[in-house]
Amino acid sequence: MSNVFSFTGTVGRDAEVRYLPSGQAVLNVTVANNIGFGDKQQTLWIRCAVWGKRAEGQLQNYLKKGQQVFVSGELSQSEYRAQDGSTKTSLELNANIIDLVGKRNESNQPPQQNYQSSGQGQPSAPQGPSHDNFDAPYDDDIPF
């Protein structure tokens, strides 16, 4: 039986690379995954680790807070005692795959929007496909 957990989420803080006394590199990053919707929505925080040569690469430079990622690997759960004496649960993933989803997050700045000048000194709305009419691409005569 295989233990593979795959999800998309948001990097919670910049990734860190450290070295074990054996010299092996490990890249650690925490990723938030939202489950449910509305009032029932919850955020799962999953600690992800990448080991060996892959941890030593350039991945650390791209895994910045706010970056959307796809992660897949072997999931485990551990328990620990918090400072208040309560028992907490932690989800940990030995990641085989970490892929960036969407654009690279540049130092948490909002994305630049491309505006075309209306000729009156004020920028017009971004040019692109209109999403006002959601029924436009569908034809009622389709037999299925």
TrEMBL record:
GO cellular component terms attached to this protein's record: nucleoid
NCBIfam families on file: ssb (TIGR00621)
SUPFAM superfamilies hit by this protein: Nucleic acid-binding proteins (SSF50249)
Motif Important for interaction with partner proteins positions after renumbering to this chain: 139-144
GO molecular function, one term: single-stranded DNA binding
CDD domains linked to this entry: SSB_OBF
Native source organism of the sequence: Methylobacter tundripaludum
Protein name, per record: Single-stranded DNA-binding protein
Ranges annotated as biased composition (Low complexity): 107-130
Quaternary context: Homotetramer.
